[in-house]
Design brief:
Layout lengths: L3 H22 L22 E12 L2 E12 L3 E5 L6 H8 L7 E6 L3 E2 L5 H7 L1 E4 L11 H8 L6 H6 L4 H13 L15 H13 L5 E5 L7 H14 L4 E5 L3 H7 L2 E6 L2 E6 L1 H5 L2 H8 L2
Helix pairs in contact: 4-7
């Protein structure tokens, strides 16, 4: 059976051929629509933003990822669940360039081979990652944290002393609204609650204008109210960004997920709606329990 990339490539070539025929019939007026996608730029023509194919990696003889196949749609909010040791964090490490797999392919869109790039390059291409523990600059204000995270060369001192451009200020205000911290812009980040720090870090990622967000247990340690607000936040991001969320809180997963993927022993065990995977006998056996 042909893999996803080969199928996608064939569909893309067929699409280009149809466009070329249209251009020829119309005196080449539509030629600009048939241009080949520039190398190194994100191409989501086929509706998928991330592909992992037959990915495996071992550490000291332990196979953490075992022939993993997974793809994420553009604008999708995908939840990844599974027992401890299932390979969830290792998978994110591979996507972001922190870990190199022994075998397999990992593509961002149809043309960017992530295995050919370093962590910093992958981040600059539009893949943002949030770890479980929030990492913010606690001695800077909320606004200064967001300004520091914005795209472009900067330093902590510049974030404090440099006057924001109108365009950057507009973006910053928009993110403050998105992450529910409009009334906390002048507070030191260290004074925020745990949940607010999590939202601030998500806002810092958004200032980098990512196409794909990877979030590792974003509601761990949150109150019920903060968890509810975080669900609202992620749902507002769906469609504007593609999101992969690793989480153990099934109530939170049910509130946000388009599709749930269950990992076990480094590979996909089941996939579908939360109701579907919760009814899966294998999932019940290895993860949910009876």
């Amino acid at each position: 059976m042909k893999d996803l990339l080969e199928q996608g490539a064939e569909r893309y070539e067929a699409h280009q051929a149809r466009l070329a025929q249209t251009a020829s019939a119309s005196g080449d007026r539509s030629a600009s629509y048939g241009r080949i996608h520039a190398a190194g730029t994100l191409d989501t023509t086929h509706g998928r933003i991330l592909y992992l194919e037959d990915v495996s990696v071992s550490f000291d003889g332990f196979r953490a990822i075992n022939q993993l196949n997974l793809d994420i749609g553009v604008g999708e909010l995908r939840c990844i669940i599974g027992p401890n040791g299932a390979g969830k964090t290792t998978m994110m490490d591979i996507i972001t360039g922190k870990t190199r797999p022994d075998t397999g392919r990992v593509f961002f869109g149809s043309t960017i081979d992530l295995l050919q790039h370093k962590e910093s390059e992958i981040a600059n291409m539009g893949i943002g990652r949030k770890f479980q523990k929030p990492t913010v600059f606690e001695m800077l204000t909320v606004s200064e944290n967001l300004a520091l995270a914005a795209k472009g060369p900067k330093s902590p001192w510049a974030a404090v002393t440099h006057r924001l451009t109108p365009a950057l200020q507009e973006r910053l205000d928009a993110q403050l609204d998105t992450i529910h911290l409009q009334n906390h812009r002048h507070r030191l980040a260290g004074e925020l609650s745990h949940g607010q720090k999590q939202w601030l870090e998500i806002g810092m990622l958004l200032m980098q204008e990512p196409s794909l967000l990877l979030l590792d247990e974003p509601v761990a340690g949150m109150t019920d109210h903060e968890t509810e607000r975080t669900a609202e936040l992620l749902l507002t991001l769906k469609g504007k960004h593609s999101l992969m969320v690793v989480e153990h809180d099934m109530g939170f997963v049910k509130a946000i997920a388009d599709v749930v993927t269950v990992l076990a022993e480094g590979r996909v065990l089941a996939q579908g709606s939360l109701d579907e995977v919760q009814a899966n006998e294998q999932v019940i056996e290895v993860y949910l329990g009876r």
